[in-house]
C-alpha cells in the first residue's frame, strides 16, 4: 500500500487524515487512484470543513466512511457550501436526515450531481406535477435516480403519463404511472402493449387496465402469459373484467393465486362454504385475513387443509382436492405454475 502511494508522491498528511477518520488502506488507495487530486487537498482548509458538514448533518461511523469512499469527488471538486446546499435541499425533498442517508447509500452520485442543472430543476418539475407527498418521498428514497436524471428526460416521462396512459396528474395513480414511464422507453412501452394484444386485449382494454394499475405494464411476459391464461382460459374471465380488476395480475401464481384457489375448491367440494365468493374477493385479502376467513375456521374438519396451506405445500392441496371431489386440478395448476 505505502509503496504504491509513494510512487504518486502522496502527501502523508492527507493519507493520515483519511485513515484517522476510519478509511482503511484499500479504500484510501482506491480513492487516490480514481481522484489523484485528492492528494493536493489541504487537510485543515479543505478536508476537515467538508467532513464536518457531513458529520453535522448526520453522517457518522460506517455511513460517513461509505459516503466518502464511494464519493471521493466530494473532497476534491465539491465546495463546502455546495455540499451543504445539496444536503439541505435533499432533506427538504426526502423529509428527514434518515431518508437522505438511505438515498445516498442507494445513489452514490447523489451528493455530487449538479445542484443548479439537475437537483433544483427536477425538484421544481416534480412539484409542478403535484409529486411532493409522503408516497413520492418513499419512491425517491428507493429510487434517487429520479432526482438526478436529465430534466428533459424527466419531463418526457411525466408528459407521457398523461398523454399516453391518460392518467391525469390529480389521480392517485399518476405516481405509479410515472414510475412505469420512467422505467420504460417508448419502444419498450409499445412492446408491452403488443404483448397484451397478442393475448386478445384491445388497446382500450390495455389503457383501462393501465389507468387503474399502471404497474401491470412492468409484469414480465412469462408471468403475464401464465396469469392471463389462468383467469381467462381456466376461470372464464372476460378480458374487460380482468382489465377492470388488474390487481389480480400482480399476485404470484405460485405463492398466492393457486394455493388460495385450491383451498376454495376444497371447501366448496366439502360443502363448508355458506356462499361462493369470487376469486377477486379472496385473492385481494391479506394473508391473515384469508387465514381467518377460510382456513382457521375449518382446521378441525379439515386438518390436512390447514397443514398443506400453512406449510405452503401446493401439491398436497391438489391431492386433497382430488381426494374429496374425484376431479383433478393438477394439470391446470401445474401448467400455470410453470410460468409463475
Q: Layout of helices and strands, plus pairs?
A:
Blueprint: H1 2-6, H2 12-20, H3 25-34, H4 43-57, H5 61-70, H6 73-76, H7 80-94, H8 97-106, H9 115-128, H10 134-142, H11 145-148, H12 151-163, H13 174-183, H14 186-198, H15 203-212, H16 221-234, H17 239-244, H18 253-269, H19 279-283, H20 287-295, H21 303-310, H22 314-325, H23 330-337
Helix pairs in contact: 4-7, 7-9, 8-10, 9-12, 12-13, 16-23, 18-22, 21-22
Task: Describe what you observe in this structure.
The chain contains 23 helices and no strands. The protein has 340 residues and is mainly α. Helix 8 (97-106) runs parallel beside helix 10, helix 9 runs parallel beside helix 12 and helix 18 (253-269) runs parallel beside helix 22 (314-325). The protein starts with a helix and ends with a helix.
Biggest sheet architecture? none
Terminal-residue CA separation: 50 Å
Overall geometric form: elongated
Structural class, from secondary structure content? mainly alpha
**Could you give the count of β-strands?**
0
Radius of gyration: 27 Å
The fraction of residues assigned to DSSP E strands is under 5%
Spans of 5+ residues with little confidence (pLDDT < 50)?
1-10, 327-331
What's the total helix number? 23
Order of helices and strands: HHHHHHHHHHHHHHHHHHHHHHH
Helix content: 55-70%
Amino acid at each position: 500500500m505505502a509503496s504504491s502511494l509513494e510512487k504518486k508522491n502522496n502527501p502523508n498528511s492527507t493519507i493520515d487524515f483519511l485513515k484517522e477518520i476510519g478509511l482503511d488502506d484499500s479504500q484510501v488507495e482506491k480513492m487516490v487512484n480514481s481522484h489523484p487530486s485528492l492528494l493536493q487537498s489541504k487537510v485543515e482548509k479543505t478536508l476537515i470543513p467538508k467532513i464536518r458538514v457531513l458529520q453535522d448533518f448526520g453522517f457518522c461511523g460506517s455511513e460517513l466512511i461509505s459516503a466518502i469512499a464511494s464519493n471521493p469527488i466530494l473532497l476534491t471538486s465539491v465546495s463546502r457550501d455546495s455540499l451543504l446546499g445539496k444536503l439541505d435541499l435533499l432533506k427538504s425533498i426526502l423529509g428527514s436526515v434518515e431518508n437522505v442517508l438511505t438515498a445516498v447509500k442507494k445513489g452514490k452520485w447523489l451528493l455530487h450531481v449538479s445542484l443548479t442543472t439537475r437537483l433544483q430543476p427536477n425538484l421544481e418539475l416534480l412539484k409542478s406535477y403535484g409529486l411532493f407527498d409522503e408516497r413520492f418521498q418513499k419512491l425517491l428514497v428507493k429510487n434517487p435516480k429520479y432526482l438526478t436524471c436529465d430534466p428533459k428526460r424527466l419531463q418526457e416521462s411525466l408528459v407521457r403519463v398523461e398523454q399516453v396512459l391518460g392518467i391525469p396528474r390529480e389521480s392517485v395513480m399518476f405516481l405509479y404511472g410515472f414510475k412505469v414511464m420512467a422505467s420504460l422507453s417508448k419502444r419498450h412501452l409499445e412492446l408491452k402493449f403488443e404483448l397484451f394484444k397478442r393475448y386478445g386485449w384491445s388497446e382500450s382494454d390495455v389503457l383501462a387496465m393501465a389507468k387503474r394499475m399502471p404497474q401491470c405494464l412492468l409484469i414480465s411476459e412469462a408471468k403475464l402469459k401464465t396469469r392471463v391464461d389462468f383467469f381467462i382460459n381456466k376461470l372464464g374471465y372476460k378480458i374487460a373484467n380482468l382489465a377492470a380488476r388488474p390487481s389480480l395480475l400482480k399476485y404470484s401464481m405460485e405463492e398466492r393465486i393457486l394455493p388460495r384457489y385450491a383451498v376454495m375448491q376444497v371447501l366448496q367440494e366439502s360443502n363448508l362454504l355458506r356462499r361462493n365468493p369470487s376469486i377477486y374477493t379472496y385473492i385481494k385479502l391479506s394473508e391473515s385475513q384469508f387465514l381467518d376467513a377460510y382456513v382457521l375456521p375449518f382446521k378441525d374438519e379439515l386438518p390436512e387443509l390447514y397443514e398443506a396451506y400453512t406449510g405452503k405445500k401446493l401439491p398436497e392441496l391438489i391431492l386433497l382436492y382430488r381426494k374429496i371431489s374425484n376431479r383433478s386440478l393438477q394439470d391446470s395448476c401445474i401448467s400455470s405454475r410453470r410460468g409463475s
